[in-house]
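Hello forum,

I keep getting stuck at the same step: I have a sequence, I want structure tokens, and every attempt I make locally crashes halfway through. Rather than fight my setup again tonight, could one of you with a working pipeline run this one for me? It's a single chain of 236 residues.
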Amino acid sequence: MALLEVNNIHTYYGNIHALKGISFTVEKGEIIALIGSNGAGKTTTLRTIAGLMEPREGTVMFDGEEISTARADTLVPKGIAMVPEGRGVFAKLTVEENLEMGAYIRRDKAVKKDLQYMYELFPRLGERKKQYAGTMSGGEQQMLAIARALMSQPRLILLDEPSMGLAPVLVDGVFDTIQRIQAQGMTVLLVEQNAHMALSIADRGYVLQSGEVVMSDNASNLQKDETVQKTYLGID
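Reply #2:
Ran it on my machine without issues. Output:
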């Protein structure tokens, strides 16, 4: 059984039919990339899974449980965390306070241990744990947003455009981090405009176009596909 199963999802913004019957699966431990042009429905897909939007048709199953109509705040304890586009850090809180906010649902005694693990995973955050998040660079804020999500101890992390607005050298660091958390057993659903980078670390990928899945395959095959190369990878 897949960890996440999205079955024939139809999601609307008012009368605008944004997702038109999207279906896909995510197995435990995979990195799955959703690629496509602006307006293809990638972010709407993540928002629907995360409980921020409710589909009019179709089902979302997480670890065998239907969560199609569940509120976002009920999904975090079930093991789903989202890193939104634009990072969404708490600018007026310190790095450490942001991380503690990520663990707000937890009542176990391992929070401090996990804080230290985040500082090992992201040494820059450890160096700046008393710094206000709003004064950090874009790359540092992206690290913080990912670490904050990890503090909730998710089983599935949803990443929405993690490379957006970052310098190329910082993009490499973010994608290295995604691979490292996968190596620790994390399952990742990645929405990314930089299709080349996304497919380079993903196990499988789905191509979205106008709210529909138009292609799916393992990531290496998608990288070799002529249509994907011309349309999304900039290869003529």
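Residues 45 and 52 are 10 Å apart (CA to CA). If your local run keeps crashing, start a new thread with the error log.
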